[in-house]
Amino acid sequence: MTQSLHEPKLALHVEDLTVSYHSKPVLWDIDFDVPPGVMAGIVGPNGAGKSTLIKSVLGLVPTVAGHVTLHGRPYKAQRRRVGYVPQRSSVDWDFPTTALDVVTMGLYGRLGWLRRPGRREREEAMAALELVGMQDYAGRQISQLSGGQQQRVFLARALVQQADVYFLDEPMAGVDATTERAIVDILRRLRDEGKTVIVVHHDLQTVRSYFDWLLILNVRVIAQGPVREVYTADNLKRAYGGQIALLDEAAFVERNDAARAAEAPR
Amino acid sequence: MTLAEMLQDYTIQNVVAGAALLGLVSGVLGSFAVLRRQSLLGDTMSHAALPGVCLGFIIAGTRDIGSILAGALLTGALAALVMLMLTRLSRLKTDAGLGITLSTFFAMGVVLLTHIQGMNNASQGGLDAFLFGQAAATLRSDLWIMGGITLIALTLVAALWKEFKLVSFDAEFAASLGLPVVWLETLLTVMVALAVVVGLQMVGVVLMAAMVIAPAVAARQWSHRLEGMVLLAALIGVAGGIFGALLSALSRGLATGPLIILSVSAVVLVSLTLAPERGFAWEAVRRWHARRRLRYQQVLTTLYRLAMHHDDPGFPSEQGMLDTYHGLRTRGVLRQLARRGLAEWRPGPPDEPGPPRRWVLTSAGIAEAERVLDRLGQEET
Predict the structure, then answer these.
(1) What is the domain range of residue A37?
(2) Is B78 exposed, middle or buried (0-12, 13-18, 19+ CB in 10 A)?
(3) How many CB atoms lie within 10 A of CB B196?
(4) Chain A residues 73-112 within an 8 A CB cutoff of chain B
(5) Domains in chain B, CATH or no CATH each
(6) What positions does the domain ABC transporter occupy (chain A) (predicted)?
(7) Distance of CA B292 to the CA centre of its chain
């Protein structure tokens, strides 16, 4: 079947997207493009619709208007090329299962109906656990893992999906410094392999050092583009309003590229 | 009646087989219901089955098990649907939605039941047995229906095992993979309704929810894998069913359904108390050990600090001083230290007044105290 591609040069293309909840707009008229091979951050105040944006791209929440394409095709046709890391708090970690089993779940889409994961799947899952440094915890009950370890397991589950575009919802929330560093390293490696990584992020301090593409969101798009151009005091003020006063402006706005060096391992 | 005689009794055979089937299907499906936090949905559906039972009777005109169970399934599923609509479309929270649906449907059931009893129809005899169950009324033909439902449910669970697992653990991720999450969740809910229907005759609408919840809760205590939990829940359900049925056959006049529920609940109680890592008793023992270790380390480091303070590794400490410092008698702990060779009960200097014997750290004790302090220091930073 031949189908003309819509904006094939973009890894993610979102046009006129509107999402509402109880007739209140959560996302309003979003136009958002991400070129392939970048690490993109999505920031904005609480309730700005950051998670909702990711979920509506993945078809997890109904949209009122607008369309989304990934590498030129709608999501339904591109599922196998997408990896997803939901918020860690969205699941019950007391569920009776092991770390390896959770990672194997990333392969269920490829396996299809009625087929059970076999040795090959277990090996792939094990390799992904090794990538995130969790191979020694493969057989561990997931409730016994620390927050950072749980997040790594979730990341490994997305890695086995062998995707071209990765969506991560607050992967750095509530994890220790070591895990944050490990996660960022893995995401950078993915980007360097030419994959596209899109991250909902909450910590403005690290935006400059982690990302090369940025969307500032507050129900509407406030600004988007390369981090250098978009990450300005003015844009942040427009997105965060009064809340910006709570943050130490000088600490993050005036940081230039020298900050990158300071981010090196202490 | 001996056990062997009992097992040859036709009625008892039926009851035991029915109870075992019920335990099997509700153990397996209950595991998913409990993990998806839908235990109370089972309760709502079982209460909501009552109007269906009555409608089935009114339509069939007799106590025909097929139409009664079909009616029960219908209103049970309808109640689940109403509850979902209520929470989706209004701002009602889940617990309120469940409560309202449960009581409304149950009230309708009771009204219909009293209406039927008022009709003075001779064949209505024992319809109210569906309230608390009447296991002795189980017929061989009922067993075939129960067996059929159980077989269908188990086959579906086996075939869709990994999908059900993923939907129960992380429905959002399942949806992102393209799984039909709504259908899978509906299927799981409908199957719980089926399990409820299976149990109506045996344990009745009021107690049926316990049969769905209890085996799963007990099994969760002992297993860290979904496979293990489901198998164990099935086993507990079957064992509880058989045990309860036999118990009621032994002691004439005691109701079977409630005895089955009590048997399963006993397993829950034991599991909540004794299961390794998750049980109360386990937790209490662990705390006791931790407290003992803490006190032991504290006394050790106090001896060490006293010695350091006096610039004398062999400083003899008086026990009264240690007791005062810790506000409790330290004799037991000190003896424990002595047993491990970390401290010694030595005669004090001969020329000094005061108690003749005092506590002195050995070199192993000093090393151990330094290790403990080191570790504490690390944890602080």
Answers:
(1) 12-231
(2) middle
(3) 30
(4) 76, 79, 82, 84, 86, 90-92, 95-98, 101-102, 105, 108-109, 111
(5) 3-258 (1.10.3470.10), 282-380 (1.10.10.10)
(6) 12-244
(7) 31
pLDDT tens figures, B7-64:
788 888 889 999 999 999 999 999 999 999 888 888 999 999 999 999 998 898 877 8
Cβ pair A83, A163 in contact under 8 A: yes
CA distance B179 to B173: 9
How far, in Å, CA of B328 to CA of B167, rounded?
54
Among the listed residues B18, B26, B107, the one whose alpha carbon sits nearest the alpha carbon of residue B65:
B18
Contact residues of B toward A, CB < 8 A: 35, 37, 159-163, 165-166, 168-170, 172-179, 220, 223-226, 228-229
First-to-last C-alpha distance (Å) of chain B: 71
Q: How far is A60 from chain B (nearest CA, A)?
A: 7
CATH number of the domain enclosing A31: 3.40.50.300
Residue A117 structure tokens = 């994961």
Determine the 3-state secondary structure of A21 from DSSP.
Answer: strand
Split into its structural domains, chain A has a count of 1
Instruction: Please indicate, yes or no, if residue A16 is contained in any of the structural domains.
Output: yes
Strands A24-34 and A12-21: antiparallel
Q: How many other C-beta atoms can be found within 10 angstroms of the C-beta atom of residue B288?
A: 10
- Give Rg (Cα) of chain A: 19
Under 8 Å between Cβ of B177 and A108:
yes
pLDDT digits (tens, 9 = 90+) for A155-182: 999 999 999 999 999 999 888 888 899 9
Nearest to B166 by CA among B47, B353, B35, B298: B35
Establish if A185 belongs to a structural domain: yes
A247 lies in some domain: no
Separation between Cα atoms, residue B352 and residue A217, nearest integer Å = 79
Is A219 within the bounds of a domain?
A: yes
Q: Which of B160, B161, B176 sits opposite A84 (nearest CB)?
A: B176
